[in-house]
Amino acid sequence: MNHRHPSSPYILNNIIHQLSDNFSSDEGCRLLSNVLSEECKVLQDIKKILEKRISFDEQYAKNLQDLTTNANRITWPINTNAIASVSREVFLQWSHVATTMSSNAEQFRKTVLDDLLKGLIEQKNDSKKFLDDEKRRYDGEHRKAQRDVADAEKRYLDEAKIYVAKNNELTKLQNNARKSDDSRIKNLKDVVIEKRGNVYRAHNDYILKIREYNFIDKEYVQKVRSLLIYHEESQSLLNRSWQSLLEAMVNYLSNKHCEPITTAEALRRMISSLEPRHFYNEMCRIHSNITQMTTNPQTFNELLLQTSGLTKVKSNQFIGDGSTKQDLKQNLYDERKHLFEQKRSIDYIRMRKGWEEQLRDELKSIMKSVGYRSDDESNGDSDEDLTDRLEDQPYFHGIIPRNQSISQLIQKGDYLVRINEQGKIVLSILWTDPDNPSRLKDGHFLIHERNQVR
After folding, report:
1. Residue 245 — left, alpha, or beta (φ > 0 → left; ψ -120 to 50 → alpha)?
2. What is the per-residue pLDDT across 63-115, written as a single tens digit (0 to 9) for each?
3. Contact 411, 255 (CB under 8 A)
4. CB of 148 within 8 A of CB of 213?
5. Is the pTM of this model over 0.70?
6. Ranges of residues in the chain whose predicted pLDDT is under 50
7. Can you give the C-alpha Rg of the chain in angstroms?
8. What is the per-residue pLDDT for 5?
9. I need a labelling partner for 40 at 20 to 30 A (CA). Which of 5, 116, 156, 314 fits?
10. Spatial contact of 40 and 121, defined as CB atoms under 8 Å apart
């Protein structure tokens, strides 16, 4: 408790992009996906163990309360033996312990199991699904571009072979032509011109597919790297939640006095020393030899030019003539339409980004008003945060009874200010038991008002 400001829910700007530097490859993405699967399994196992632990504590509290009930049925000779009165008080203390334990277990189940841990598991699963789905989508786009080039090359080769066969047929017919072959020669010339046009169109399409692939190939490498940068930043955020989970577990155990103070404090120091940005350092070191993804551009197959034998076709140069004019016009129309759609999409994204930034600032303002600070804000409190009203202080918890305030005090030094059932202002604090330094004890002190100043 201690009224510390929570860690930032926003992505850090100075994060070291180790994962994108080490795992930008098919093998690297598979490894990261497997790591997420393992983390999800670990969190599920933690949840099962914690659920059993809470069930044990609830049952223990019930059994303790039953024993206290049995003790209340005893006829204590408190008027004749002083130790009998003390014995009765000991059993009454058991009732207090049972109530506190039951309250703590209920709060832990609600805030940790049903909220923090459940949300962390869902987010880890979602991040794995997002990583796998995005990588699969990028792979699909890249493979399609490869297939398009291969299909265009095959179509080019087929059209070139057909053209050569028809042109050879025409040459042979012309070399052995007779008067009666004029009509047949004319028809065959038309066919050869048509097949040559098909070669020109296949040539242009092949160049277009190569250029499209090379663009997608370059973008593919960049997309995978950007995906891993996002993945690393999101895992840093989720691992902070994992730290909060561990802190809640230690606090729960220390609140039940299951762990010595020194042990609990050592665990807290161990947890707080963890830096989420460096959780995967060891994994990066182990897999530092993974071959990184690089671009693999396609080049024009010069053999296609030799196959057709057409002097007009040049490597990586579009052909514009009567046979390709309509196709080029259609391509120009399609590209103009596509550019318009992209521009509209970019304009929408720009407006959406502005709206989301405005919404984020509003949410940050609301979070700030309830005492939640993000890491990108100043560490000092601004003047606008200062107020003399007790109700505005982060340590004020309103009207709550004593037993409920105890459940809010988790570790040594935790405190809160409340109003009790009689309307008095009370300071509740958890500190070392003066009679037993190895244990913690809650204390409650009335705060007297003077001249309306608290």
Report:
1. alpha
2. 988 888 888 888 777 677 778 778 878 888 888 888 888 888 999 999 999 99
3. yes
4. yes
5. no
6. 1-15, 373-386, 450-454
7. 38
8. 32
9. 5
10. yes
> φ, ψ for residue 348 (rounded to 5)?
-65, -45
pLDDT in tens, 128-170: 999 999 999 999 999 999 999 999 999 999 999 999 999 999 9
| Contacts within 8 Å (CB) and 24+ apart, 65-70 | 65/94, 65/95, 65/98, 65/99, 65/102, 67/91, 67/94, 68/92, 68/94, 68/95, 68/98
CA-based nearest residue to 392, from 451, 445, 454, 444: 454
Q: At what angle do helices 26-72 and 118-175 cross, to 10 degrees?
A: 160
Which SS3 state, helix, strand or coil, does residue 444 take? strand
Alpha-carbon span 4 to 410, nearest angstrom: 13
The set of residues, in sequence order, having a beta carbon less than 8 Å from that of 425 and lying 6+ positions away, is: 390, 417, 418, 419, 446, 447, 449, 454
β-bridge pairing 396-399 and 415-419: parallel
**End-to-end alpha-carbon separation of the chain, Å?**
22
Taking the C-alpha atoms of residue 291 and residue 282, their distance in angstroms, rounded to an integer, is 18
**Paired tokens of 88:** 């009765």
In this predicted model, what pLDDT tens digit does every residue of 8-24 receive, in sequence order?
A: 333 333 345 678 888 88
Q: Helix, strand, or coil here: 185? A: helix
Q: Which of 27, 26, 29 is nearest to 232 (CA)?
A: 29
**What are the C-alpha distances in Å from 279 to residues 33, 233, 274, 283, 347?**
16, 12, 8, 9, 38
Tokens of 266: 């050592």
